[in-house]
């Protein structure tokens, strides 16, 4: 089963897997984990904040995502089309594109953010 990891899930899985729920960890261990390029974008935009998840996102992505064989999901026109049809339930643009990608790919999103279930996507936590 393919799964899409949201940004926090991805970082926690690779850095501190104990922060993941048991179902999230099991899904990541059992499935083909995908990471959206939107997560790299988010990490880059937030890397200078004091509560940043990752200080050097490009190096971190290369070492932990690329070298781990995690497939990077690009943002495609079909993802943007799905994004345009989303209701205004959630304001975070990165979460919204991950929801759209989950819809476009028809795969579950591994996320702790329970509000994203309001979009009707399959989530795991």
Write up this protein.
With 125 residues, the chain is of the alpha/beta class. It has one domain: 3-Layer(aba) Sandwich (Rossmann fold), CATH 3.40.50. The chain contains six helices and five strands. A five-stranded parallel β-sheet has the order 3-2-1-4-5. The longest helix has 13 residues. It is globular. The protein starts with a strand and ends with a strand.
- Please describe the biggest sheet, giving its number of strands, its sense, and whether it closes into a barrel: 5 strands, parallel
By CATH, the architecture is named: 3-Layer(aba) Sandwich
* Helical amount: 40-55%
Shape: globular
Q: In angstroms, what is the radius of gyration?
A: 14 Å
Q: What is the CATH fold-level name?
A: Rossmann fold
CATH class: Alpha Beta
Strand order of the largest sheet: 3-2-1-4-5
Mean pLDDT: 94
Amino- and carboxy-terminal Cα gap = 15 Å
Tally of individual domains? 1
Structural class: alpha/beta
Low-confidence sequence ranges:
none
Number of helices: 6
| Approximate strand percentage | 5-15%
The fourth-level CATH homologous superfamily is 5'-nuclease
The ordered H/E elements are EHHEHHEHHEE
Number of extended strands: 5
Core attributes:
globular; Rossmann fold; 13% strand; five-stranded parallel β-sheet; 125 residues
Secondary-structure map with pairings?
Elements: E1 2-5, H1 7-15, H2 22-30, E2 32-36, H3 37-46, H4 57-66, E3 71-73, H5 77-84, H6 93-105, E4 109-110, E5 123-124
Parallel strand pairs: 1-2, 1-4, 2-3, 4-5
Helix pairs in contact: 5-6
């Amino acid at each position: 089963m393919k799964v899409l990891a949201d940004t926090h899930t991805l970082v926690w899985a690779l850095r501190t897997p104990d922060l993941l729920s048991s179902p999230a960890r099991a899904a990541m261990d059992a499935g083909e984990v995908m990471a959206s390029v939107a997560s790299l974008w988010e990490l880059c935009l937030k890397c200078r904040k004091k509560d940043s998840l990752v200080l050097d996102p490009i190096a971190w992505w290369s070492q932990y995502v690329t070298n781990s064989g995690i497939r990077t999901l690009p943002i495609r026109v079909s993802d943007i089309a799905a994004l345009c049809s989303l209701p205004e339930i959630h304001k975070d643009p990165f979460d919204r594109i991950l929801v759209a990608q989950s819809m476009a790919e028809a795969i579950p999103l591994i996320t702790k953010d329970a509000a994203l279930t309001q979009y009707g996507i399959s989530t795991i936590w």
